[in-house]
Every structure is written in C-alpha cells, then in structure tokens.
Design goal:
DNA polymerase, domain 1
C-alpha cells in the first residue's frame, strides 16, 4: 500500500494482546504447559517476563529464570543446554498451534479502529514473535473477523525479533512507507516499545489488553476500579521508562491520537 499522506503513513501493531487475544493468554498458557510437561512449575507471571520476544528466545529467557533453571537442574540432573533449548522450542510449537484458535478473538473496538485508520489512507501491518505457521493461523482468524492487514511480519522473516527493529523495517518495505518518523509502532510489551524507539518510529504502548495488565478478560473485568487503575498506572510508568511516546489503554483509542501525531510530523518533529 503506497500512501500519499504527509503525516502517519503506517501503523505497525503487535498481534496477541494488542489486536487479538486479550491478555496475551495464548502464549502465556502454552509456555506454562510446556514446562509442566517436564514436571517444572512455571507461573503465569514467569511466562510473561519475556513476552514480546521471538518464541525460541522466550523459552531461553524462561530457562534463565532462577526458579525455573533450578527446577530443570533438579529434575533433569544437569543444567539445560542448547540441545535442550532446541528440543523445548520444537515441543512448544504444536502446543502453541493447538491453542491459538481458542484465544484468537479480536479485542473490543479493534475492528472499528483498524477500519477508521485505514480509511484515512494509513497502512496497517502486524508483527509478532510467533513463527510463520502460528502467524498464518492468527492472521486468518483476524481476516475472518473483519481485519484486512496490509502486511504481516513474523520474527522468522528477519535477522532478529524484538527488541530489534527489523520487523518494523520489513513492514515499512512491504507497505512502501518511509521514513520511520511517519510510522507508529504500537504494542503491549516492553520489547515492542524498545523496537519502536530503535526504529526511529513513534512508539506507543497499550496497558489494559495485553501483557502489562497480565490477565485475561474475565480476570480483568473482575478487578476493582482501583486495581485496574493501579495496573494501568504501573504499566504506563514502565512503558514510559522504556521510551514510549504515548501510552493508551487499547489500540481502540489510537484513532483519536492520529491528528495529534500528524501535526507533530507536519511540524517537522521526529520521535
């Protein structure tokens, strides 16, 4: 998609926790199950620590968490190796694929937000730490629910996933949009924020629908107003610290911000 806009030309959004799958529940559940099969207890919170990374990197980061690494050594009899990591990642793939359809539900307001943004002549691309097969499942499900992406990029297609910026640059190439100062990167994890900053794009975080809040929709709805506010404020502070230019509750709030960023771009301001 070639844009003639003088403001934002491309929005690059994460998938799970940002466009679909409230709370990034599909990957969190799959990582917990992966280690359970090896008699290792990994908590939901531990599974969320590396969220946003390419999934093999995610497994490696979890193994480096002392509580998990210690359990591995105690259960297996030795410290984990690269061979173990490769085997775990291979085992993770079918686990993740099996649960993706159950969680691939568009977030509230997302279909309308995407339609509005594309109606302004802005391309929408999605990036993900999933591999190609996983991404294809998610993209197909989103298409069935009314989202027609202009591009989709997974970590396997580039030299390295988040927090490196290569998926953003690949999405820019695919949609023929440049320079980076006309690109918005939005996501629900700290690696999303860092990737956007490294790319020289406008980096925006979302707090309520993904990893920063860290819970599925029923759990989020069950929280008191004070608890939701506390999680939102904590997530906002962490994302701002990572370099976020803006932090929203959801991508559904992004259309209201388009004009402000457009004006900053037209004024010659860079992220």
């Amino acid at each position: 998609m070639e844009t003639s806009r003088n403001g934002i030309g491309l929005v690059v959004a994460d998938m799970a926790g940002t466009l679909t799958d409230f709370g990034s529940s599909a990957p969190a559940a799959a990582f917990v199950e992966l280690f359970r099969r090896h008699d290792i207890t990994a908590t939901d919170a531990e599974a969320r620590i590396p969220m946003g990374l390419q999934k093999r990197d995610h497994v490696e980061t979890m193994l480096k968490i002392s509580t998990i690494g210690d359990q591995w050594e105690s259960t297996v009899g030795n410290a984990w190796t690269e061979k173990d990591l490769d085997a775990l990642y291979a085992e993770f793939i079918p686990i993740q694929l099996s649960v993706l359809p159950d969680f691939n539900i568009l977030l509230e307001g997302i279909q309308g937000a995407v339609t509005t943004i594309q109606g302004l002549g802005i391309a929408i691309a999605a990036t993900t730490g999933y591999n190609q097969e996983m991404m294809d499942v998610v993209v197909a499900g989103m298409t069935e629910q009314g989202i027609d992406l202009d591009a989709a990029v997974c970590a396997e297609e580039v030299a390295a996933g988040r927090p490196d910026p290569w998926m953003i640059f690949h999405a820019m190439e695919a949609t023929n949009v440049s320079p980076p100062a006309t690109v918005v990167k939005i996501g629900d994890t700290l690696p999303d924020i860092v990737a956007g900053v490294r790319a020289g794009a406008w980096s925006i975080g979302v707090t309520d629908t993904g990893n920063m809040a860290g819970c599925d929709k029923p759990s989020w709805d069950a929280l008191s107003d004070a608890e939701r506010t506390a999680r939102r404020e904590k997530g906002t502070a962490e994302m701002k610290e990572a370099g976020a230019h803006y932090v929203l509750s959801s991508v559904a709030d992004l259309p209201a911000l388009i004009d402000e960023i457009d004006q900053r771009i037209l004024a010659g301001e860079k992220p």
